[in-house]
Amino acid sequence: MTDMTSNVVVEGKSKKSEKTEFLVYFAIIFVVAIPLATLSWGLSTLKAGRLTGKGPLARAWSQARIITPMIFKT
Questions:
Q1: 49: left (phi over 0), alpha (psi -120 to 50) or beta
Q2: Is 37:59 a contact under the CB 8 Å cutoff?
């Protein structure tokens, strides 16, 4: 008698759906990070008395690049 349960094929998510899901999460995090990055940029600009190297959009982009992969780690 053959045991048919030992060769079960488990299908995972396709690469396209994983990329789409990643981009959706990235966009949400980026949009949420913009006001916070603007606030921190403004405060650092006031404290330094001059414009800093990274603007608010670059700061928000960096935060989204850091946070989004943390969600997808398993």
A1: left
A2: yes
Query: Which has the closest alpha carbon to 26: 63, 52, 54, 56?
Result: 63
Could you tell me if 64 and 46 are in contact, meaning their C-beta atoms sit under 8 angstroms apart? no
Helices 56-72 & 15-48 angle (0-180, nearest 10): 140
Which residue ranges make up each domain of the chain? 26-45+52-74
Q: What is the pLDDT of residues 15-45, one digit of tens each?
A: 888 889 999 999 999 999 999 999 999 999 9
pLDDT of the residue at 18: 86
Q: Identity (one letter) of the amino acid at 35?
A: P
Record the pTM.
0.72
18 closest CA partner among 71, 59, 67, 56: 71
